[in-house]
């Protein structure tokens, strides 16, 4: 079976009602990164950071996967499909995707402040300020804050290197090192599909790039139809 790797960003969840990072009504229009999404903010003002992610979790309870997420589940019947996402929401899993790697952590999980030995899934409930791990350490959101290392990066590179087809959905590729992942495709013969209503800076790659300038909920199902109907049956499988 040919391997399709799908690299997603906040744009795929926009049609579910979760604000993207940079759009006009984006999250960061209302919050300063340095107040809610850095280790320094957590040390300086724990209550503000915990409350920010509690609000994100409450919102997660209100939204559902859209046709973009669902079409990627259908793709699994025709291709060995694997998702690498920058998103911290769980909409890919809730849609039914079986292979999802979260690069920037997961909103429904907490971990101890010093590492990732202890990770607990709290679903969409609020985190209490004084919640602790069995070893007594305070817990924090299992999210990669700005300025922190990205533990899953190497794993993501491995996955993207195996792609016979790369699909990029709803990411500006502006957040690094995540944005550099598209450069790890095996070679310049790997076809790349981009689904995004706006331009995405990817032309530095010499690969055959097809840009579907649509919202994910419309564009991804159309792309899945094209792939199902053998648009790429001629490409070699590695
Ligand atoms: N849902 C989430 O979990 C979530 C939400 C916001 C931010 N983030 C975090 O912020 C970082 C933001 O980087 P990013 O590149 O994802 O966000 P970004 O805001 O930089 O880029 C979003 C991209 O999505 C596109 N887009 C907007 N609406 C779309 C739609 N309906 N369908 C398809 N594409 C659409 C935009 O044109 C843009 O290219 C990520 O690393 C992520 O961790 C996550």
Would you mind describing this structure in some detail?
- The chain is α/β, with parallel strands linked by helices.
- It folds into two domains: about 1-15 and about 65-105 and about 150-238, TPP-binding domain (Rossmann fold, 3-Layer(aba) Sandwich), CATH 3.40.50; about 20-60 and about 105-145, SIR2/SIRT2 'Small Domain', CATH 3.30.1600.
- The chain is about 30% helix and about 20% strand.
- The chain has eight helices and nine strands.
- It has helices spanning about 10-15, 35, 40-45, 45-60, 65-75, 90-95, 155-160, 215-230, and strands at about 5-10, 80-85, 100, 105-110, 120, 140-145, 165-170, 190-195, 210.
- The strands form two sheets. Strands 3-2-1-7-8-9 form a six-stranded parallel β-sheet, sandwiched between helices. Strands 5-4-6 form a three-stranded antiparallel β-sheet, with helices on one face.
- The longest helix has 17 residues, at about 45-60.
- It is elongated, with a radius of gyration of 18 Å.
- The N and C termini lie close together (about 10 Å).
- About 40% of the residues are buried.
- The mean pLDDT is about 95.
């Amino acid at each position: 079976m040919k391997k399709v790797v799908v690299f997603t960003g906040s744009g795929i969840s926009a049609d579910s009602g979760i604000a993207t990072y940079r759009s006009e009504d984006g999250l960061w229009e209302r919050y300063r990164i340095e107040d809610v999404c850095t280790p320094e903010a957590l040390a300086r003002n724990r209550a503000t950071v915990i409350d920010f992610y509690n609000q994100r979790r409450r919102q997660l309870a209100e939204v559902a996967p859209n046709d973009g997420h669902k079409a990627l589940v259908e793709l699994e019947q025709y291709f060995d499909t694997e998702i690498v996402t920058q998103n911290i929401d769980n909409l890919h899993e809730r849609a039914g995707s079986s292979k999802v790697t979260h690069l920037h952590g997961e909103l429904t999980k907490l971990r101890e402040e010093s590492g990732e030995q202890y990770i607990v899934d709290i679903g969409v409930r609020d985190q209490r300020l004084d919640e602790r791990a069995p070893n007594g350490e305070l817990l924090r959101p299992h999210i990669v804050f700005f300025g922190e290392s990205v533990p899953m990066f190497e794993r993501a590179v491995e996955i993207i290197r195996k792609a016979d087809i790369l699909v990029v959905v709803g990411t500006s590729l502006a957040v690094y090192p995540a944005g550099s992942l598209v450069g790890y495709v095996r070679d310049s013969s790997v076809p790349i599909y981009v689904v995004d209503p706006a331009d995405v800076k990817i032309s530095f790659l010499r690969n055959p790039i097809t840009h579907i300038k649509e919202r994910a909920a419309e564009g991804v199902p159309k792309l899945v139809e094209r792939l199902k109907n053998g648009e790429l049956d001629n490409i070699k499988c590695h």
